[in-house]
Amino acid sequence: MPASVRASVTPTFTAGAYGAADVVGGMLTFNVSGTPQGGILNRVIVVDDDNEKAVLTLYLFGTKPSTIADNAAFTPAVADLKALFAKVAIAAADYAELNSNAIAIIDDINCVLPANNGYIYGYLVCTATPTYTATSDLTITLDVLAEGRN
Fold first, then answer.
1. How many Å apart are CA 102 and CA 81, to the nearest integer?
2. Which helix or strand (DSSP H or E) is residue 79 part of?
3. What is the pLDDT of residues 23-53, one digit of tens each?
């Protein structure tokens, strides 16, 4: 049975408004050091302390992409797109409100995670125009089933 790896990031981002297609929090770096041979991305969890329930897309890369700043337009280079291995949509309907906060759990993604250097990189991109009230309102978690090769 493959090992399970959980990697979370709480990015620092702008307390304020975002435009559609803007990056939220800059480049995200997930420590998946238990998956050097790859694995299966099984679940993405977004905890939203601001209860925005923003429609987002998480783009995941197997190698470090070019830097795009927080609250800037998501404009990846063609070379970066060649390392893109997953695009996970987070819809408003995916969120549940709990204790004045929100959580979205996207299950059964079943996307192949490539062999890596211990890190997976990502960009969280908003589809609409959320306004966050604090600089750490989101936590993004990846659940990965690690490939066990000897």
1. 30
2. helix 78-81
3. 999 999 999 998 888 899 999 999 999 999 9
Structure-token match 């783009």, residue found: 59
The set of residues, in sequence order, having a beta carbon less than 8 Å from that of 63 and lying 6+ positions away, is 83, 116, 117, 121
Specify the residue for token string 């306004």. Answer: 131
Q: Count Cα atoms within 13 angstroms, Cβ side, for 110.
A: 1
| pLDDT digit string, tens, across residues 119-131 | 999 999 999 999 9
Q: Which residues of 13-32 are buried (b: 16+ CB within 10 A; e: fewer)?
A: beeeebeeebbbbbbbebeb
**Residue from 120, 141, 108, 135 nearest 24 by CA:** 135
Pick from 58, 45, 57, 60: nearest CA to 114: 60
